[in-house]
Predict the structure.
Amino acid sequence: MVRVWEHVSAMGVADQVVVATDSDEIAQALRHSDATVALTSDAHPSGTDRVAEVAAQRRYAGFDAVVNVQGDEPFVSGAAVRGAANIVTSERFPLGTAAAPAPNDILARPHVVKVVTADDGRALYFSRAPIPWLREPEDAPARDRVARQHIGVYAYTRDALAAWVALPQHPLERIERLEQLRPLAAGYAMGVAAVSELPIGGVDTEEDLARANARWLELSAERA
C-alpha cells in the first residue's frame, strides 16, 4: 500500500490523496511515509463502501468528485485515473471507470474483469467471463475490436457515491464478486474511459504478487 500511495500521489491527478484501510498494520506503515490515512470499519463489503465512509467525513465535504484507486492495482496508469475522473468532472456520467483493449489470451481468465459498453461509452455489463462471447469464429475480428479489459479505478460524484453504498448488495454483485454491478443493476450510468495502453495487471493471485514485486524492483532501478 505504501507503493500504491506513492504511485498515485506522483500522478498529480488529485487535490488530496487519502489511503482508506481497516488494517492497523497498513496504517502504521503508511504513517511512516507521511501519507494521509483513514482507518475505517472492517465490515465493508467493497472498496467503494470503504471510500464512502471516508468521503462522508466533514473534512472532505468540499470535494465534488471522489476517485477510488484500489490497492490491488499498484501499477494503474495516470491515463486510467484521469480518464475515470474526467468522466465525472465533465458531467458526462455520475460514475466513471476505465478499460483497455483485451488481448485474446486474457479473455478466458476469471481474474481479469471484462466490460462491454454502449456506443456512448456507458458500461452495459462487467463480467469475469469472456464477453462478448464469440459464437462464430469468423466474427473474431469484430469481437477483438470491442473486447475491453476493465481497469480497477472508479470515480463518483458525491451524490452517486452516496446512492451506490445505500443500495443493498445485488445478487449479480455477489455471484461475480464485482461491486460495480450493484449500481448497474439499479440503473445508474457508469461511463468507461478508453485507455490505449494495456495495463500491467492487478494483484489477485500469489503469482501476480511475485510479478508485481519484481516489476516494482525494475521500476525502482530505472528511477535510481
Notes: Residues 2-223 form a domain with the Spore Coat Polysaccharide Biosynthesis Protein SpsA; Chain A fold (CATH 3.90.550.10). The CA atoms of residues 170 and 194 lie 27 Å apart. The chain has one domain: 2-223.
